[in-house]
Amino acid sequence: MPRQKSAIPSYLLHKPTGQARVRICGRDHYLGAYGTEESRRRYGELVSQSSNGLPVDPVAAAGPQDSGPSVAELVLTYLKHAETYYVKDGKPTDEVHCFRSAVKSLVTLFGMLPAKDFGPLQLQSVRTQFIANGWTRRFCNASVNRLRRIWKWGVSQALIPVTSWQALTAVSPLKQGKCDAPDRPKRQAVPEADIVAVREHLTPRCRDFFDLLRWTGARPSEIRTLEWSMLDRTGPVWTANLIEHKTADKGKSRVIHFGPRAQEVLKRLKRKGSTRVITIGPDTLSEAMRDACVVAKVKPFTPYHLRHTHGTLVRDSIGIESAQAALGHASADMTAVYTTKMDALASAAAAKCG
């Protein structure tokens, strides 16, 4: 005997979106998050209207099947793409972790919203949460750009209309002094006495890494990926043409130059059978320097401060173009942020003549 059909439509779960739904006259009506009081109230209203012969709200009848992926679904799809796109040495880069941090607040606040309906006001709400998290202004702006990148990718995959991404570009970045997000203090050159004090409390392996950063101005990732086969030791200044570096995907080249002091470090490191110049984890030196700063009782500084210190030394000694070349900057504008003795000279001139 066939099963008798219930006269009252059932309150159901739509698994792909997590919403409650009810089917009336062959059409699905979506009610909001499954299990909530609001969705059950909406369910009761629709069933009551239907049983009394009243027309059901056509907006509800459209349902999410016409609205494309939700924010959570778009994010999940993009993260799968990011894990294969942002890869170095066979492992996801830090950019993947930055995306995961950015989307956490996004999904918490608007995960169930259709991605095409996520607009400038919602983006600003997520940014407000970034500020509440204590993130710096620059990191908030970078995170907002990452969210926009997700929507731009969604457009390229025909998942959402182009107008959705275009609307998000209307949100201006946070301006210094005009928002509640803090600004990170500008990185300064490290005093020579502090460098010497911290160096004494490092292990030999970390000390060699420390010295190479100090005397080349290279990025930590550049030294960690440096291989002996890349070194050209035929001239008075050794060079290494890097295969993998920060701007390699943009067609830029990066050459590190090793003067006499950096060469002495490399001679200490040369071992038979080793491919990499430095075999050390990405955070090992940072953690060792942090502990050494505490023991040496100096103001904490990081491996990137060594790069900044080298850039400052070169700029003050030789000039901005030399510093730009040594640091591998694409433009002198990037090198201009490095402190220089010219500031002190200008101050002295103003005190005497101004």
At a glance:
This protein has 354 residues and is mainly alpha-helical.
- What radius of gyration results from the CA coordinates? 29 Å
Low-pLDDT segments: 1-6, 58-65
Q: Profile the largest sheet.
A: 3 strands, antiparallel
* Number of helices, where a helix is a run of at least 4 consecutive DSSP H or I residues: 16
Give the end-to-end Cα distance, rounded to a whole number of Å: 103 Å
Going by CATH, the homologous superfamily of the largest domain would be: Intergrase catalytic core
- Main sheet: strand order: 1-2-3
Count of β-strands: 8
| H-E string | EEEHHHEEHHHHHHHEEEHHHHHH
Helical proportion? 40-55%
Quaternary assembly: single chain
- Helix- and strand-based class? mainly alpha
Give the C-level CATH assignment of the largest domain. Mainly Alpha
Can you describe what's shown?
The protein has three domains: 12-66, no CATH class; 71-168, Tyrosine recombinase, N-terminal domain (DNA polymerase, domain 1); 192-351, Intergrase catalytic core (hpI Integrase, Chain A, Orthogonal Bundle), CATH 1.10.443.10. 51% of the residues lie in helices and 8% in strands. It has 16 helices and eight strands. A three-stranded antiparallel sheet has the order 1-2-3. A hairpin with a 2-residue loop joins strand 2 (19-24) and strand 3 (27-33). It is elongated, with a radius of gyration of 29 Å. The model is unreliable at 1-6 and 58-65 (pLDDT under 50).
